[in-house]
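Comment thread on ticket #2218

A.B. wrote:
> Attaching the input chain for the structure job we discussed in standup.
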Amino acid sequence: MPRSRNSGNVARARQLRQHMSLPEVLLWQELRKQSEVKFRRQHPLGPYVLDFYCAAAKLCIEIDGIAHDMGNSAERDASRDEWLREKGVTVLRIAATEVLRSPHEVAEAVMRSCLR
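C.D. wrote:
> Ran it. Output below, let me know if you need it in another format.
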């Protein structure tokens, strides 16, 4: 049976969980401490793998490092965001520098977004 694109994303998501960036690790540590809302990290959804996803709020959190400012990344991000919006998912993009500066404050802001 041919392998679907989504099954490839599941394997890719597992691999990404093993190699998270420092800002992703710091935010994940903060998000795990709270109990109001549950998050998934490196969550496959359609053709994409989301940095963090809150199913209850249908909220995707993307940590954007410097790579998002290079090449055609802005176009790819816009296309991805549009696809997610069509599926009813809100995308919250956060600069990696903000997470590095204050992971606790970023996690609190994410929680406020989820609980609206």
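A.B. wrote:
> Thanks. Noting for the ticket: The two ends are 43 Å apart (CA to CA).
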